[in-house]
UniProtKB/TrEMBL annotation:
It is a multi-pass membrane protein. The keyword Membrane applies. PANTHER family: PROTEIN TRANSLOCASE SUBUNIT SECF, PROTEIN-EXPORT MEMBRANE PROTEIN SEC. GO terms for cellular component: plasma membrane. It is found in: Cell membrane. Residues 109-226 form the Protein export membrane protein SecD/SecF C-terminal domain. Keywords: Cell membrane, Membrane, Protein transport, Translocation, Transmembrane, Transmembrane helix, Transport. One of its GO terms (molecular function) is protein-transporting ATPase activity. SUPFAM superfamilies: Multidrug efflux transporter AcrB transmembrane domain. This is Protein translocase subunit SecF. It comes from Candidatus Kaiserbacteria bacterium CG_4_9_14_0_2_um_filter_41_32. The chain crosses the membrane at residues 9-34, 128-150, 157-185, 191-212. InterPro entries: SecD/SecF_arch_bac, SecD/SecF_bac, SecD/SecF_CS, SecD_SecF_C, SecF_bac.
Length: 269
């Protein structure tokens, strides 16, 4: 029952985390990768990497426009390398860039080269946003439908709203972490990160519904029912089921959380 006794503490902690995450995302922002912004990304590795200034100076001679060079962890531990970001390159420009970066340093090798047009990047960003919005709407409708028979004291739509609030929390935290990683480590948001968020959505919904299902079972086990007749306008008589809880609703929810806690922790790792 500690979840009920200290519920205000848990709510304050969750609120602080959410507000802090919102502030981080709003002020720092996200560093989008070429999947969303468009452009070309080349990773080159060296046995003995040249200085970053040397690489930048060589690329500057190609007059490709704006570009950036940053250190990267090469695929092999004994190598070092750079990530080179440019605008979307033609085949000829790509060949020139490869020739330049491979001509400096020892044991040079192009690990990967990705190129995404700006139109495709914008389209991917829009689709990613719509995917998350669509999943959220479907979740609300599903939860509201699945828990329609729970009855008082909480409407099934409240269950759906709480699920989305939990989803917002669970998505916001890794997004804020990604924002900080982008600021301090240069981490970029790409399609894989969106897939990770969708995976978080799935696990979050699963965990929340498990707890809600236990709440529903506890409600049914700790209430009495009686059918009463009521008269509607026009003299139409109808029956309505009235529920009376034998335990406080907070206690029932607390027991459901306690029953599901071990499973929730085990499925989180």
């Amino acid at each position: 029952m500690f979840s009920i006794i200290y519920k205000n503490v848990f709510l304050i902690i969750a609120a602080v985390i959410m507000v802090g995450s919102i502030v981080i995302v709003a002020t720092v922002g996200l560093k989008y990768g070429i999947d969303f912004t468009g452009g070309s990304l080349m990773e080159v590795s060296y046995n003995s990497a040249p200085a970053k200034d040397v690489v930048s100076a060589k690329i500057e001679t190609l007059q490709l426009g704006g570009f950036s060079v940053r250190e990267s962890g090469a695929s092999e531990s004994d190598k070092s390398g750079y990530l080179i970001r440019t605008r979307d390159l033609s085949d000829n420009e790509r060949s020139q860039l490869e020739g330049v970066v491979l001509s400096i340093g020892e044991g040079s090798h192009v690990e990967r080269f990705n190129s995404v047009g700006p139109v495709i990047g914008t389209e991917l960003k829009d689709k990613a946003i719509w995917a998350i919005v669509a999943v959220s709407i479907i979740i609300i409708l599903y939860v509201a439908y699945a828990f329609a028979g729970v009855g008082k004291p909480v409407s099934s739509w409240v269950y759906g709203g709480i699920t989305i609030l939990v989803l917002f929390h669970d998505i916001l935290v890794p997004t804020a972490m990604m924002s900080l990683l982008g600021l301090f480590r240069g981490a970029e948001v790409d399609v894989l990160f969106v897939m990770a968020l969708l995976a978080v959505l799935g696990y979050s919904v699963n965990d929340t519904i498990v707890i809600f299902d236990r709440v529903r079972e506890n409600l049914k086990a700790n209430r009495t029912e009686r059918t009463i007749k009521k008269t509607a306008a026009g003299g139409v008589v109808y029956e309505e089921t009235e529920y009376t809880l034998t335990k406080p609703f907070a206690v029932i929810v607390g027991n459901a959380v306690a029953d599901s806690l071990a499973r929730s922790i085990n499925t989180s790792f």
